[in-house]
Fold this sequence. Notes:
This protein is α+β, with helices and mostly antiparallel strands. The protein folds into three domains: about 15-90, Helix Hairpins (Orthogonal Bundle), CATH 1.10.287.1260; about 115-165, Roll (SH3 type barrels); about 170-250, Alpha-Beta Plaits (2-Layer Sandwich). It is about 50% helix and about 20% strand. It contains seven helices and ten strands. α1 packs antiparallel against α2 (about 55-75).
Amino acid sequence: xxxxxxxxxxxxxxxxxxxxxxxxxxxxxxxxxxxxxxxxxxxxxxxxxxxxxxxxxxxxxxxxxxxxxxxxxxxxxxxxxxxxxxxxxxxxxxxxxxxxxxxxxxxxxxxxxxxxxxxxxxxxxxxxxxxxxxxxxxxxxxxxxxxxxxxxxxxxxxxxxxxxxxxxxxxxxxxxxxxxxxxxxxxxxxxxxxxxxxxxxxxxxxxxxxxxxxxxxxxxxxxxxxxxxxxxxxxxxxxxxxxxxxxxxxxxxxxxxxxxxxxxxxx
Length: 267
């Protein structure tokens, strides 16, 4: 039969192309895996940012696979330029439909490359504070001090103020303590200094700021700012508040309640 002969001829003529395309795909995909693993090991060996390594590795792997697919398509006579144009048009259509997500993706790439914060940093952004657990391509995941998980879109992070509280290895711990107007200022300052000297997490090679911040409506307010390692911030904060209260009580230094003086005039 003629159709059998035609099928045989087509099989003979296209068999080398099919075999070559399959071989190209197999070898190309294997090479993509090998190259991406080599890139990962090289980045890990050089202590590359842990949050950036998976993203770059995936990008290398996907790019190589796309090039392999285009090479296999060209073996069958497909115009690669037309293929790229179709992919470009498809990407544009998807981009228009997912404008918000793409902006978050672009913001995620900016965060990964410019690194205003890293995994493990404690940050404050968009009214939330917590330790960075994971930096994804669309979102950043925080774990709060009370172990809540907060997922914030990357676009919101890059479009507003961001405070990285662990960017520097050392920082001050600002606190305010008030005493009554009848209290002895010098004695209170001495007591606060003694409490600070007894805290193991305060850096004692740095001076502790103890100043009169303001004369409030019912108290004389001290600003106290000791230095500590960034990871010990909350240890110092909680220790000072508890121990200063106990030390004030032991030394008869009163912490006044909010109060108001009322003067009554009789006609």
